Amino acid sequence: MSETGNIIAIPTFNRRTELEACLACLATADRLEDWPVVIGDDCSTDYDIADVVRHVPFAVTVLRNDTNLGCDGNTVSLLQTCLWNNARRVFLLDSDMIVSSDALSFAERNFGRTDGVLSLYNSVLHGEAEIVDGELVRKNSVGGAATVWDASVLKDMLEGLDGPHCWDWRVCDLAFEKGIALLVARQSRAQHIGIDGTNSLRFGELEYGAGFRIETREHAQAIAVAHEKLMLSQGIYRPPFKPSLLERWRRSIVKRLPKKRPPENRRPALGVLRKK
């Protein structure tokens, strides 16, 4: 841990491509020297975590669980470890997210204005926002990822959980009960690149950080990979009850075609009757 008492905590399980993009983009962040990185590996089976961090251009501490704890269990375990190591501020970053180059300096500049929690991820799925100023908005709901925590507030939150398997959805309820305002970066300093998973089910329900800017080659590469995966996975997002785009196009064409007039039951004109 650095002298500032800051820690970036990244829980992860499999999804190597996303984790590599996360770390590559994090390497471009300013003030990273003041934020040591700790990865909590939940017994990944698709790769050896040591191979991933070997060539990362900054120091990374890896904590590997003896057994798989699940997403929330791994997150809670990692956060508790950060507190046991006397962290004063913890930036919780999911392994399928990338951050902007000024994410950490933005957090340091604005954290003193908060009640001990600041989200750098302005998710389109977490309700309407009340504008505070040019940098911050206030929301009633945020996700647990890409949030910066004061250690004392984080400790209270963890103690208020109903077990380790309800971190992500319980946080906002606890904040409301304790009167903690949820301030969020108006221009998202984090972006979600995880296309597959239980929280990515169909169009209209995909996570996205509003206003995130692509500033570096690493950002562009991460977004390009996520976009290609999305385009190649479109079949899983189309609701089964909704006609395909081709079928809807065909129906639209049929509607615009001139309707055929039904045959009329008329007697042939006398002039065309054939004489016997």
Detail the topology: elements first, then pairings:
Blueprint: E1 6-12, H1 16-26, E2 37-41, H2 49-53, E3 60-64, H3 70-84, E4 89-92, E5 97-99, H4 103-110, E6 117-119, E7 130-131, E8 136-139, E9 147-150, H5 151-159, H6 167-177, E10 182-185, E11 190-192, H7 217-231, H8 234-237, H9 245-256
Helix pairs in contact: 1-7, 3-5
Protein name: Glycosyltransferase
Region (Disordered): 257-276
GO molecular function: glycosyltransferase activity
What does this structure look like?
The structure is a single chain. This protein has helices at residues 16-26, 49-53, 70-84, 103-110, 151-159, 167-177, 217-231, 234-237, 245-256; strands at 6-12, 37-41, 60-64, 89-92, 97-99, 117-119, 130-131, 136-139, 147-150, 182-185, 190-192. Helix 2 links the parallel strand 2 (37-41) and strand 3 (60-64). The N and C termini lie far apart (112 Å). Strands 3-2-1-4-9-6-10-8-7 form a nine-stranded mixed beta sheet. A two-stranded antiparallel ribbon has the order 5-11. The protein is an alpha/beta fold and 276 residues long. The protein has a single domain (6-237), classed as Alpha-Beta Complex (Spore Coat Polysaccharide Biosynthesis Protein SpsA, Chain A). The longest helix has 15 residues, at 70-84. The chain contains nine helices and eleven strands. 32% of the residues are buried. Residues 257-276 are annotated as: Disordered. This is Glycosyltransferase.
